[in-house]
Amino acid sequence: MRRRSVFTLLTLALTAIPLTADAEYRYLCTSVPGACEYSSADVPKLLADVCYYPGSNAIKIKGTAPCPSGSNAFSLIHGEIVDPQTGQVSAYAPLDDACAAGLCAEFAPHDDPQESVMCCENGGPCWPGGTCGGVLYWCHDGVCNDDGTITCFDGEQL
User: Fold this and answer.
1) pLDDT tens, 55-103?
2) Whole-prediction pTM value?
3) Strand partners, 75
4) Where are the beta strands (DSSP E) in the chain?
5) How does residue 13 score in pLDDT terms, banded at 50, 70 and 90?
6) What residue spans define the domains of the chain?
7) Strand, helix or coil at 92?
8) Which of 3, 18, 110, 121 is the most exposed place for a label (fewest CB within 10 A)?
């Protein structure tokens, strides 16, 4: 009986204590639409708590004090400090590579290749940008087609 109560106490203690620092706050990129810039997967990791200011869409390193009035605390995985004096942060939401997901056409010479976000409907076309309601991917070498869709080529990263 004693073994069971020790196990129960240990289980309760482990579930009540955050296992990592980022478990204390919600993840910024999934909690606040538009707060994080979509990017390729090769962006820097920051692994920090930040203060998000909704009025200006600004993000700053949190530090040990609570976030100032008018801002909210969040955790951030990918980002970089762009101004060490103010603690200003650029936040990134890395996306899976479109070619790794099998969505790229064989490379062909083309004009004006662009790195961009593409949104692909389930089994359907892909569109530039992140607002079609499908799955978002990062395209390293894409071009917009006359019908508004995007073709992502399986070529070298730009």
Assistant:
1) 999 999 999 999 999 999 999 999 999 999 999 999 999 999 999 999 9
2) 0.76
3) 27, 49
4) 37-39, 45-53, 58-61, 72-83, 88-94, 105-106, 114-120, 126-128, 135-144, 150-154
5) very low
6) 20-94, 105-154
7) strand
8) 3
Residue type, position 109, single letter: P
Q: What is the pLDDT of residues 129-142, one digit of tens each?
A: 887 788 999 999 99
**Integer Cα distance of 47 and 76 in angstroms:** 6
Torsion of CA 99, 105, 106, 110, to 10 degrees: -110
Inter-CA distances, 53 with 43, 67, 71, 88, 90, Å: 23, 9, 4, 11, 13
pLDDT at 24: 86
Structure confidence at residue 23 as a pLDDT band (50, 70, 90): low
User: Token match 């083309």: residue?
Assistant: 110
